[in-house]
Amino acid sequence: MAGRKGNILAVDDTHANLRLLAGIFAEREYRVRPVPDGAMAVSAAQAEPPDLILLDIMMPGMDGYEVCERLKADERTCDIPVIFISAKNDLFDKVKGFSLGGVDYITKPFQAEEVLARVETHLSLRSLQTRLEEKNKALTDALEQLKATQNQLVLQEKMAALGHLVAGIAHEINTPLGAIQASINNITNALNASVRELPRLIQHLSFERQADFFALSEAALKSKETLSSREARKKRRSLRKVLEDHEIDDAESASNILVNMGVHQDVSAFIPLLKEKESPFILQTAYNLFVQQNNSQNIKTAVERVSKVVFALKSYARHDDSGQMIQAVVTEGIDVVLTLYYNQLKRGIEIIKNYSAVPHIPCHPDELNQVWTNIIHNAIYAMDGKGQLEISVRASEGADSDPEAGWIIIRMTDSGKGVPDDVRAKMFEPFFTTKPAGEGSGLGLDIVRKIIDRHQGRIDVESEPGKTTFSVFLPIRQ
To answer: Nearest Cα to 259, choosing from 278, 281, 242?
Structure first.
């Protein structure tokens, strides 16, 4: 915070953590008030509101979630930024923290640089918000309304920046879950109807027509054809004419059901069945059996999609506390990030993947996932959600006898507007950003560069109007 240091309330039931946080911020001349439990934290914040609260979650008595709820319910403390800092690393815990009003979430064990960077960012945001509120007090009613609108927009943008990944994942999970719910309802209704109707159907039909009925049901179950709306209309018109030529009652309704069941190529074997007096009832019963099978397949497809997203999320959220590099394939991490960003990418961005066979390399996969996340997110922003993102991965050429001379080269090229030379010269500097206020902290590419440096690699940027390429070079062996 330029020109002044902040007043920070640090809440943690582990005294070693409090000493560590106090030491980190004391070196930067911040005022730190360490508090060892939740009840004392609420009292301390109400008695002397701090500029920012670092809040542990797992504490005896009143946990961090309850502390946050009480602070947000009190007008004296509701506007204080709360950063959760916890060993709990599940998505549910992070989403819960944000939903209660937290502005950030840091996972233990933490890096001092990361804690400092996030605290300084939110203190700056808090300071700007406070000054804006003070100025707005003197404005007219019209400006007060504008202030409310602007504050809402700032809040939405800030939450979008903090939770853009979580929001996309939630959508990608909710969509198939909605399909599953709808399919279950369809199956339940069709099953109930089948239980009622099948005994009556069996009693009504002769043995020959029963065989026709089961042949029709089997034909529908075997059908794998997917028709567009235009193709389906054409099939219905054609089939209706065939049925009318055979003097089938209500040929239009029958053709609709048969096409929906995928039975429309050759229906001659089913004409005697369709001429039965209760053919509408017979067709509806066959359709109910088809609905159960078709919706079961829908559920399978939806479950596979959710499983893929959950697997990607687990891979992305995995954190190695040992600090030791492990052998991994970089393309797996890139695909994890692409899966998590699928909701944003599917709206208008074409992904072109050119992956060559590459060896495992020693690395920190969770850190590299952060690199891919930042580059892909910036590419989506640069293309305004529409364009082409090409990702190539290959191993550099080198003598077989000297594998340490080789590199894994990852290039991500977007079709965005390009990066001006003056911006490109500063883009890896901490806190430099070209995004509007509330949409970027300016720390992303600085962290990316540090991660690549830690891997003894390098990152280059080439840009021209309509084309920007980030090239990451990682050594095959350390």
So the answer is: 242
Distance, CA of 242 to CA of 252 (rounded, Å): 11
Handedness of CA 346, 293, 257, 261 (dihedral sign): positive
| Residue 14 tokens, joined | 């582990």
Q: Please tell me the distance from the alpha carbon of residue 80 to that of residue 82, in angstroms, as a whole number.
A: 6
Cβ-based neighbours of 79, under 8 Å, separated by 6 or more: 129
Sketch out the chain's domains with CATH numbers: 7-138 (3.40.50.2300), 180-299 (no CATH), 318-475 (3.30.565.10)
- State the sign of the Cα–Cα–Cα–Cα dihedral 309, 310, 315, 318: positive
pTM of the entire structure? 0.44
Axis crossing angle, helix 15-26 with helix 112-136, rounded to the nearest 10: 70
The neighbouring-strand residues paired with 463 are 468
> Whole-angstrom Cα distance, residue 269 to residue 250?
18
Q: How many CB atoms lie within 10 A of CB 411?
A: 17
**To 5 degrees, how large is the angle CA 68–CA 4–CA 65?**
5
For the chain, 478 residues long, the average pLDDT of each consecutive 10-residue run is 70 91 88 92 92 92 92 91 89 90 89 89 86 71 52 37 55 70 77 77 80 81 76 82 78 80 78 78 79 77 70 61 81 86 84 91 85 87 90 77 69 91 80 62 73 89 91 87
